[in-house]
Amino acid sequence: MNLLKKKIASFETKIFGLDLSDLSVKVFQLERENNFDKMRAFYSIDIPSGNIDDGLIINQEKVAEILKEAIKKAGPQKINTNKVICSLPESKVFLRIINIPKMSQKEAKEAVKWEMEVNIPLPIEDVYFDWQFIEGEKEEETFTKKLDGSSRQPILTVAIPKNVVDGIMEVLEKAGLEVYGLEVESIASARSLMDEKNIDFKSASLIVDFGAQRSSFIIMEGDIPFFTVSVPFSSEGINEAITQNMKVDRKEAEKIKVNNGIAGWEEDNAIFSSVKPLLENLVNEIEKTIDFYSGMKKPSMEVKQIILCGGGSNLKGLVEYLNKRLKREIMIGNPWVNLKLEKNKKFLSQEDSVRYSTVIGLALGGINYEN
Fold first, then answer.
1. What is the pTM of this model?
2. Which of 273, 295, 280 is closest to 326 using CA atoms?
3. pLDDT tens-digit profile of 241-292?
4. What is the CATH classification number for the domain harbouring 254?
5. CA distance 88 to 272
6. Shared-domain flag, residues 203 and 154
């Protein structure tokens, strides 16, 4: 679902993905040739702190300059288009499933607007919003029933403050880009991580996207995002805890985190002891999110698996720790699962690729734009 999507006439239009966060930008372009998907170009570059604050662009000129640099340095081939689909910051997005009486799409427009006015904490005139009907595999799976027997139509809704979207549009245009879509991070991540050939439509999944300053939880019912929430657990927080508790500088803390992680956590080593309160809080937030989902929808689906992505998912020992504490299936996501790549045509290791999960999902949206 795009808050902005241009209609195009040519099937040859090339579009790349751009994932913009407070501290980094990632670009990724895919191409489709002879029934195979091809990685044309990718790159990641840091954004100095203070230029973007929780999704709001503070320094338009500096961020535009960094975007141009990322596009210029992308490889192994050059990005050959200025058309882009860009991410929207999860922390600023209101994504929910609502249910309205069964009606036509034209009739639903006003009903959805009224429901959103009730369900979001901002005036409706201060947000951009989008929505779409959710269709089940069978007609009887599409509609829910109230106690009186009347049918209810589930609808996926997304809203985001106008000042956030306007700032992103302005900086993309300053960078010389033509915006073909704006998409919520969670929807892009789900596109790359949920195996479309093997989706279990009878169970739910939780995607945990570890970021530099925050993490996002995405509850998926089959292939549909049910709701999202952002929590303060972050890679920067891990570094800060190691810095303070082990009395090292930030550079050394990053080195300790990358090289050691929390491997051997069962023995309660010095590194694990430094970050244990943060990890326990992460476990509590995951459990609270699953409990909230179970309570908000009756009947709810069982959350059978938790998929980790983002750079923080590479923390050594994390999968084993979460598996033990949560007693659920924990896995690191595979953002290549929905791509048909030729053998030996990946230019990213599996470890590096999870950092690109969102932007790969955006790039997938680019090559499948007409659909």
1. 0.88
2. 280
3. 999 999 999 899 999 999 999 988 888 788 999 999 999 999 999 999 999 9
4. 3.30.420.40
5. 33
6. no
